Every structure is written in C-alpha cells, then in structure tokens.
Amino acid sequence: MKTILKSVVLLFLLVLPLGCTDMNDSPVPSELAVNDFIWKGLNLYYLWQEDVPDLADNRFANQSELNTFLGTYSDPLDLFNHLRTDAVTDRFSVLFSDYSVLEGVLSGTTMNNGMDYALRYKDNTNTAVIGWVRYVLPNSDAAAKGIQRGDLFYAIDGVPLTATNYRNLTAPTSYTINMADYDNGNFTPNGQSIALIKTNLSENPIFINTVITEGAHKIGYLMYNGFYASYDSQLNAAFGSLKSQNVTDLVLDLRYNSGGSINSATKLASMITGQFAGQLFAKQQWNSKAQAYYESSNPSSLENRFIEGLNSLHLSKVYILTTKGTASASELVINCLKPYINVVQIGDVTVGKNVGSITLYDSPTFVSKNSINPNHKYAMQPIVLKIVNKLGAGDYTTGILPTNPLPEHLYSLGILGQTDEPLLSEAINQIVANGKKAPQQEGPIVRDFMDAKSIDPLRTEMYLDPQ
User: Fold this and answer.
1) Separation of first and last alpha carbons in the chain
2) pLDDT digits (tens, 9 = 90+) for 346-375
3) Where are the beta strands (DSSP E) in 353-416?
4) pTM attached to this predicted model
5) CA of residue 203 relative to chain centroid, distance
6) I need a labelling partner for 377 at 20 to 30 A (CA). Which of 36, 57, 412, 438 fits?
7) pLDDT in tens, 139-152
8) If you write DSSP's letter for every residue of 217-251 in order, what string do you get?
9) Which of 394, 322, 308, 390 is nearest to 356 (CA)?
C-alpha cells in the first residue's frame, strides 16, 4: 500500500507511514507546491489532525482530488488557517513565507529596536492603550537613546495607541514613541518623544546573573528571558559562576520569558537540580498516529530526561518569578520540576501554553532543508505535541497560578536585580523569613493584555530542536 510520501523522516529520524490513500496518481502542479506542502505537513504532524475533517487520511482518494481541493485556495495562509482547529484551541501555529526569518526568531534574532515593552488599557473602556518598557537590550538603539524600564508611551508617530491599531503602529522598522507620565492612575502626555530604529538584533537571554548575600544565605538571581539553544553554553557558564560562589538559594526570574527550546528547558531544570540525572523530566504526547508509531518503534523518543554533566546546583527548592508574559518552555520548567522539588512561584498567573511545535520545510523529510524546494521559502511552525510532567499533569491552558500572587504595578516597578524590586524582594523575604509572606501592595490590579513578544506568535513558541 503506497504512502503519501515515499519516505518521511521524522524529528527523531524515524519513518512514519501516512494514510492508506494512493497519492502518486498525478503530479503536483508547480503553482500548488506550497499548498501541497502545507496539507501534507499538517496531515502528518499537526496535533489536532484528527479533529480537522479536511486533514483526514481518507479525505482524498488520490493526488488529483487533493490538487482540486488545494486549487481553491489562492493564498497559502488562507489554506493554513482553514486546516487549523478552532482559534481558541490552537492559538500558536504559524506559517512563514520566509524560513530564514522564522529561524532567526527561534534563535533569538529579530528586527528589534531593543525596547521590550508591554501594553495595558488606560481605563476600563478597553480601548485606549498605554505602553510601558519592561527592559532594554544592551547595545540596541533603545539603549543608545536612553530608554529605561518604566518609561511610558501613549502614542506612536503622534497616533494614540488603541486596542485596534497597536500592531500596525509597532510594525514599521522605524517609529517615534510619544512619552507620558503616570500619576495616581492618570497618564499625561509630557511632550517628549524618542525616535527608534530596528536592526537585526540577537538577544542574549541571560539578562542578569548575580549573587545576593542576605545573612547566611547566598542567593543566586538569574533573569533568563528566552530558551535559545545557541546560548545553552552561556547558560551553563552562568550556573558555573553561581556554583563557584556556593549559592544556597536560587531566584529564577522568568517573568518576561515567553519560551523556546524544550531541550534548553530540560538543561535549565537539570542545572537547578542535578540529583535527578537520567530520570524522566517531561513526556511528549503527539497526534494518535505519530504517538502510536513512536510508542511501538522508539518510546524513548517521547521522553525528555534530566541531563548529567552540567553545572548543577542540586537544589531542593527554587523560587520562580512569573507574570502574564511567562509562557511555553518557562511553564514547562515550572510544571515538570514540581514532582521533584519545591517550586515557589511568585508574581502573576502565566500564559497557559502547554503545547510545542517543530519547524517544517518543503523537503522530502519536512524536518530538514536537505533537497528543499528551491522555488519558495515557505515554512510552518505547527503545534505538534503536548507536554506533561512525569505524573501526567499538564492541563494548564488557563495558566499556572502563583504560590504568592504579586502582579507588577506601574507605580512600583523597581529596578531589575535590585533587592527592593517588588518581586525579587518578595522572593528574598521568602528565603530569609522561612516562607513568611511580605505585606501585599494595595491598589487595583491592572494586567498587561499584550507585550512585544506575544505580538509575534513565534516568540512565544515552545519547540523541539532538530536532531
């Protein structure tokens, strides 16, 4: 019985047969090459393949029927969106017309002016929007222009930000932000403006790595803003520095970390611990045909295990700072460490992304660029798996609730890394006061509804690295 593809090599270098239909009865017209790639890639890998009628293995009797269907979509993005399940279930699958851009984002390289920001509604009408700077990347245009954490902007190029225009206003390579002051809940334009220019910028996710001494405690503080595999060696070196200073406690700041590599997340968890090398950290759940094949052919490929040989702290407790911007691989670390050590989560509820993706190219193997179709550069980053911890727990689509709720307030942001910054201060208090909670801040809780990373869905991805 023939398969849709003669040989499909999966991420783990396994061959996964597809449906029973004969797809070799006619060629694929060149104008349908992108659409054909989208359908076949999603039919094979998409986590919710069985829930999409037009992705069923028996939906088309042959390639001719498939071609007829594909020809009804002139825009590949329209086909891609049609073949996804509902937007609530799948908020994260993306299609890119240029895989080099996709690869850059997944490695931490983007067109970026260095200003990482979040957006909040100015009032309860949920219309007017205010932007605030979360942090600034070193050696960026924003750093050179003196942008600082806590700076506020109400407009771009003189156009006030709203819930409907912020994407268009922040998209250009260059724009001018119009600044505002904050006083007792009121945002007032102050007449200042700053012109910013985006460049091709690589973000080192290790933003702060330091040791704070409080009495008998040597507290390691690591602000880690993205799981980028190309920085794994620097992350290991950062833990080597903490280890050499004999830290007794660790505060891991993931408040602005929107995710990334599952393998990097596994390494981070292994560096925090070290006493569980070789034990099960996380389990992957794919669509039923991929899952069945892996379970019968190579069940270990569905497992992520703690890694040995890293700079590990051997801790039995970790303090993790989170916000509404904490997503994906960050949540994976929290959820999958919980069966092993005490995880004290301080801050706000997380995003709720418990699924992962892989990059698919229009090539014979889908997961490699070998013999890639030279006539276009489309690539997909579809959701293909769900991640659970060793106990099978992983249903946190509404977010992971903090142990100690402490949302960020614009009137008391503090300086990142300073001991009086509210979230870090609460973690230090937890450590030195043996779990006693500090007094909670008063005032209404106003949360961000969007940030610079979540505007681009790729920057909130949790993905498997090619192997």
Assistant:
1) 29
2) 999 999 999 999 999 999 989 999 999 999
3) 355-357, 360-361, 379-381, 383-388, 404-405
4) 0.91
5) 14
6) 57
7) 999 999 999 999 99
8) EEEEEEEE--B-GGGHHHHHHHHHHHHHTT-SEEE
9) 394
